[in-house]
Design a protein that fits this description.
Length: 496
């Protein structure tokens, strides 16, 4: 293992516009274009809107938590480093490896999904060929300097944002009868049991769908170490992204709910394998746009490529960060002349190559990859919230003034506590039926990340005798922004 160091060799090339679009694009994907339909079908229009709104608020608090730590200590792959420094090195070690493996698996899942999406146009060509092309493209982009990643994410995100805006405009036109025949109005919002179907239990089930939809927003914190001016760009990206995400999701769900009754079976059956019944496709078709399916298929293709690109970046930077914390082999901390952690990229690519097992073994591997990678994102959010609670306590305990923080999270400690509670509910509710009926195969697939996290944590604690870091010994010096980058340099202790 490498000796612990805070030195950062990656280049600060990401601009503010890159960070804003990375966070926005990371949370607008198949979760909105496809999964939102199942949320409406399950909980009704009102239940879906409340579920997404509450989860969106929680994600905002998580982003502010990450923003407070990232502007104070901008590190590439920051999240695991914060757990290491502020809580317990064993927790940072286990969280970091789980997060790395999860995002590397995500690359495999999204590359496979891209092949399935391409089969919409080319059904007779094996999907693994398209998956290989996408994977090679993702590797090439991530092998270039970080600005190439930022530019690619920027333009892919713009495609998704423009699609959502056009959808909202056309959807409103359908509701008012400007397109698609007679006006629909708002009758579907109160159709049968709507707006709330099933009460509180179904709203809780929407948390799970919404949580998966919002995963990826934490990339703002991970990119902090490579942004040109983290002290200014991160707070701006957090606030602008939150309102855009919340408005896009809530307004989109509202439009879908107005145009399609919650009882529509198409809302429950939508998937990347049948884009013709995506709620977005159905609304476009209601407006009389015959090419809707092809357009949405193209948009979803950009969404999965964007997710794969982000996954490769996140996993590479996490491995790089752990190498500099002494929690991964030193070679993973080495960079190319352009500042890219090349060996960490190779390791992530190796895991991503599990993509091709789907073509050899069959579709069961695809389902396994999705199930086994699902829980890690919520565990990551719990680690972020816990790290923020410890950071703030250590900051105050060591006599520093909160006024010197470049960015301060809103409504602390309510935000991180809410995140911990909701994420715990979602983690337990991943597959409650499997728990009740003792279906061990499903339990293992669904909750695989939990025992892995525990095993890694116990391994590190037993081998390196790590423990909860006392508040007065928490390292608040490493990775501090230079005085020229923000108005406040190293925080000053309050006078006695």
């Amino acid at each position: 293992m490498a000796e612990k160091t805070t030195e950062n060799h990656v280049k600060r090339l990401l601009k503010t516009r890159h960070l804003s679009m990375i966070a926005l694009g990371g949370s607008i994907g198949t979760g909105l274009f496809i999964a939102s339909g199942s949320a409406i079908h399950t909980a009704g229009p009102g239940g879906a809107i409340i579920g997404y709104a509450i989860m969106g608020m929680m994600v905002y608090f998580l982003m502010t938590s990450m923003g407070e730590m990232a502007t104070f200590m901008p590190i590439s792959g920051s999240f695991a480093s914060y757990c290491t420094r502020f809580i317990d090195p064993g927790l940072g070690f286990s969280m970091g490896w789980i997060y790395w493996f999860n995002w590397a698996l995500t690359v495999a899942v999204d590359s496979t999904t891209a092949g399935i999406v391409m089969n919409f146009w080319f059904p007779h060509i094996p999907s693994w060929i398209f998956s290989l092309v996408v994977l090679i493209y993702i590797i090439t982009v991530n092998a270039l300097e970080v600005r190439a990643f930022g530019e690619m994410e920027y333009w892919l995100a713009i495609i998704k944002v423009v699609t959502v805006i056009l959808f909202l405009i056309i959807g409103v036109a359908v509701i008012l009868g400007i397109m698609g025949g007679s006006a629909i109005g708002f009758s579907n919002l109160t159709y049968k049991e709507a707006p709330f179907v099933g009460g509180a239990p179904t709203i809780l089930s929407v948390f799970l769908v919404a949580g998966f939809s919002f995963q990826g927003t934490e990339l703002v914190g991970i990119t902090a170490g490579e942004s040109e001016n983290p002290g200014k760009s991160i707070p701006k990206a957090i606030h602008s992204t939150f309102w855009r995400i919340l408005l896009f999701y809530i307004l989109s769900i509202f439009v879908i709910s107005c145009v399609l009754p919650y009882t529509s079976p198409n809302l429950l059956g939508s998937s990347v394998k049948d884009i013709t019944i995506s709620p977005f496709t159905l609304v476009f078709r209601r407006a009389g746009l015959a090419f809707a399916a092809s357009v949405m298929n193209a948009v979803i293709l950009t969404a999965v490529i964007s997710a794969a690109n982000s996954g490769m970046y996140a996993s590479t930077r996490m491995l790089y960060s752990m190498a500099h914390e002494g929690q991964a082999w030193k070679i993973f901390g080495e960079t190319s002349k352009s500042g890219v952690p090349v060996y960490a990229l190779m390791a992530s690519t190796l895991v991503a190559c599990m993509t091709f097992l789907t073509g050899i073994i069959g579709p069961s591997v695809y389902e396994f990859l999705i199930d086994s990678s699902g829980l890690a994102g919520f565990l990551t959010w719990m680690g972020m919230a816990a790290a923020h609670l410890r950071f703030r306590k250590a900051y105050v305990a060591q006599g520093y003034s909160l006024d010197d923080l470049r960015y301060r999270a809103w409504l602390y400690p309510f935000g991180p506590i809410l995140a911990l509670v909701l994420c715990t509910v979602v983690v337990i509710g991943q597959n409650p039926m499997a728990l009740l009926h003792g279906n061990w195969q499903q339990i293992i697939l669904t909750y695989l990340s939990l025992p892995l996290l525990l095993i890694l944590w116990l391994y590190y604690r037993l081998r390196y005798h790590s423990h909860l870091v006392p508040l007065d010994q928490v390292d608040l010096s490493g990775g501090q922004l230079k005085s020229g980058e923000i108005n406040a340099g190293k925080p000053k202790k309050e006078d006695a």
